[in-house]
C-alpha cells in the first residue's frame, strides 16, 4: 500500500471543447499531478474526445457539461442532431466510457489523499430556471432544483472522508450578479447571477451535516467576457471557508509560432486546506511558460 500524501497537486481542466490529446496527459505527468478534475464541455456529444479523457491514467473525476448533451437534452437540440437518436445514444456512450470517474450526481473517494469528490448536477446550462425537465426526469428521476440538491447531499453523505471537493459544470448561485462575477451572465449588458441554485442549497446542507468543503470548482462561464469585452475580474472567490474556482479559460489550447500552449488550473492542497491556486500555460516541451497566482492562503 502506498503511503498517504499530505500535500497534493490537483489539476482542474476547464471546458475542453474538443481540445484534448495525448500530449495533455503527458503534460499532467510532467507537472506531477496527483489528481485531475474535468469540469465538462468535452465537445458537442464528442464521444471520441471523451474516450481519450476516459483513458487518462492519472486519478481523475469528471462531470459532463451542457455541450455533452447538446443534441439530447432539449427539443431544440434533438431537432439538430447529426445522428439517428433512435439507434444511438451518445450521452450514454460518454457516461459508459467515463464509468465511475463521472461524478455527476455521484461521488468518488480518494483514500490515498483522504478526500472525496462529489459532483453536482451534470449537463447544467446554469441559471435559475429549471430547464431540460424531460431529460433529467428520464435519466435521473430528478424533477426540480430541490430534488437535485437532495441528490447531491445524499452523495456527500456517502463519502468516506470529511473533506469534500465539489465539482460542477456550472458554479453555485450567490457569488455575484455583475457580468464579470465568477458566474455572472455576460451575454447581456445588465449581467445577472447565472449560478445553479441547487448547488447553493446542496453546499449549505452538506456543511450542516458536518462535512468540510475546501474547494468548489467548475467551468461553463468562460473567462473572456462578451459584454463588456475583457475578462472576469474574479476567478477565485473565498466565502464561508470555501474557495470557488472557475477554470473555464477558453480556448484552453493555443497554437502559434510553432508552439502549442495548454492551460491548467493547479491547486495546491494540504491537510484539508487549499494553499494556492494558479493558472498555468504549458509549452510543447512541458515547461511552464506563464503562471498567474489566483489564490494564496493568508
TrEMBL record:
Pfam family, one: Metallophos
GO molecular function: hydrolase activity
Full protein name: TIGR04168 family protein
PANTHER family: CALCINEURIN-LIKE METALLO-PHOSPHOESTERASE SUPERFAMILY PROTEIN
Start and end residues of each Calcineurin-like phosphoesterase domain: 9-223
Leader sequence residues: none
Family matches, as CDD domains: MPP_NostocDevT-like
Amino acid at each position: 500500500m502506498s503511503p498517504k500524501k499530505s500535500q497534493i497537486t490537483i489539476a482542474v481542466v476547464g471546458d475542453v471543447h474538443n481540445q484534448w490529446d495525448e500530449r495533455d496527459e503527458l503534460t499532467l505527468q510532467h507537472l506531477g499531478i496527483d489528481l485531475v478534475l474535468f469540469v465538462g464541455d468535452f465537445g458537442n456529444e464528442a464521444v471520441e474526445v471523451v474516450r481519450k479523457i476516459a483513458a487518462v491514467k492519472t486519478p481523475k473525476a469528471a462531470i459532463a457539461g451542457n455541450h455533452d448533451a447538446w443534441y439530447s437534452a432539449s427539443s431544440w437540440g434533438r431537432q439538430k442532431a447529426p445522428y439517428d437518436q433512435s439507434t444511438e445514444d451518445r450521452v450514454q456512450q460518454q457516461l459508459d466510457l467515463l464509468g465511475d470517474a463521472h461524478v455527476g450526481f455521484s461521488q468518488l473517494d480518494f483514500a490515498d489523499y483522504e478526500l472525496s469528490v462529489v459532483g453536482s448536477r451534470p449537463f447544467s446550462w446554469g441559471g435559475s430556471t429549471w430547464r431540460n425537465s424531460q431529460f433529467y426526469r428520464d435519466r435521473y428521476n430528478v424533477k426540480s432544483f430541490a430534488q437535485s440538491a437532495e441528490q447531491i447531499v445524499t452523495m456527500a453523505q456517502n463519502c468516506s472522508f470529511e473533506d469534500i471537493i465539489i465539482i460542477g459544470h456550472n458554479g453555485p448561485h450567490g457569488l455575484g450578479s455583475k457580468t464579470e462575477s465568477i458566474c455572472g451572465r455576460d451575454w447581456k449588458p445588465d449581467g445577472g447571477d447565472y449560478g445553479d441554485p441547487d448547488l447553493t442549497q446542496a453546499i449549505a446542507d452538506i456543511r450542516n451535516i458536518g462535512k468540510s468543503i475546501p474547494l468548489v470548482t467548475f467551468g461553463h462561464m468562460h473567462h473572456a467576457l462578451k459584454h463588456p469585452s475583457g475578462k472576469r475580474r474574479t476567478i477565485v472567490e473565498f466565502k464561508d471557508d470555501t474557495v470557488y474556482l472557475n477554470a473555464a479559460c477558453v480556448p484552453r489550447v493555443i497554437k502559434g509560432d510553432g508552439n502549442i500552449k495548454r492551460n491548467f488550473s493547479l491547486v495546491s492542497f494540504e491537510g484539508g486546506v487549499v494553499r494556492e491556486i494558479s493558472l498555468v500555460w504549458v509549452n510543447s516541451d512541458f515547461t511552464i511558460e506563464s503562471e498567474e497566482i489566483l489564490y494564496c492562503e493568508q
